[in-house]
Amino acid sequence: MDGKVSVIVPVYNREKYLENSVLTAVNLPEVSEVILIDDGSRDNSLNVCKKLESKYEKIKVIVHDNNVNKGTSASRNAGIKHASAPFIAFLDSDDIYHPNRFEKALKILNNDETVDGVYDSYTVRFENGMEDIRGIREKIPYHKLFEELIAGKKGRIHTNAITLKKEVFDKSGYFKEDLRLQEDVELWLRIAWHCKLVPGNLEEPVATVIRHDENLMDQTNFHSKIKYYESSLNYFKNKQISFNCYWLLWLKLVKFRFKNKNIAQFLSGLMSNDMFFLFQRMNKQVK
């Protein structure tokens, strides 16, 4: 029998949007369970979660010990570990799935055991009603995806529009809980290195990201970008990635350190172990 999906939904202060969001997952036939992880919400979100759990058999609610706020990464990780389906997907608690969310992804995953995950396109809906289709907009061979994600010129993978085998996390690890932003981008990079990710539905979006005052984040948060590139460089330091990939990661780290206008940190970065490893790899390539 074809495998179904566990949908992981971290929840923090989203009582206004939560039910509408969750129902777009519950009503999909490919979904066997929707796991809501309340992340220490201070509003009525937990009560909404429990109400939905009592009403829909598919819904399960998890609460962190002592109702503490652990962050999105820790909440998603808890959901993954509690999931019972062979495939994992994610949904942010103020966004929505489309009826076609898993049509192509599950067809690929159930028919090709070599594939570890499928990414699709998605839309972003703004408060003025405008929508913008996003995602990786062209088919990239899976063995080139890692480098393309680092380059960042062909789009990005969004959390709401990727479907993965549960066993992928045994290969790549889980979300980094010390990253409060860019944690998804960092994980997709690790998964692209360790696993086979292939394109699914790039023409018709499978989910919508809804932008509003409560979820708009500072896309120029230099500190979060710095932490992301530092974490990636540290992880791939001893992996056999190409010199070009390592060089590009390091250049982007330096760029954001410089944009952060912390000259001491910028200069320190130039003198860091990253630079040593960079030249070490350069020497190996020359030889």
TrEMBL record:
InterPro entries: Glyco_trans_2-like, Glycosyltransf_2, Nucleotide-diphossugar_trans. CDD domains: Glyco_tranf_GTA_type. It comes from Natronogracilivirga saccharolytica. It comes from the Bacteria. This is Glycosyltransferase family 2 protein. Residues 6-164 form the Glycosyltransferase 2-like domain.
